[in-house]
Write a structure and sequence with these properties.
Blueprint (H helix, E strand, L loop, with lengths): L5 E6 L3 E10 L4 E7 L8 E6 L2 H10 L3 H15 L1
Antiparallel strand pairs: 1-2, 2-3, 3-4
Length: 80
């Protein structure tokens, strides 16, 4: 079975939320990237995680739409 590398949620609050997971060969860490709509722009935020197990756990949790929305809300609060 192929490992999932992208999640797409359609939401009223943030439009489409795109979450991707990839391994950075050069720096040897996993990148989990969030992209969503905020005031007409599409910002990108990245988490860098060394452990494959932790990266998979975070990514699995973000498959839940409500969890993804909550995480985006936390990001928005942190940058305001």
């Amino acid at each position: 079975m192929k490992e999932k590398f992208a999640i797409l949620h359609d939401t009223e609050k943030h439009g489409q939320i795109l979450i991707t997971k990839e391994y950075d060969l050069e720096d040897k860490f996993y990148k989990i990237t969030y992209q969503f709509e905020l005031e007409g722009v599409m910002p990108v935020f990245r988490l860098n995680i060394k452990s494959r197990k932790k990266a998979n756990k975070v990514f699995k949790e973000l498959e839940n739409k409500e969890t993804a929305i909550s995480e985006i809300d936390k990001i928005i609060i942190a940058i305001q």
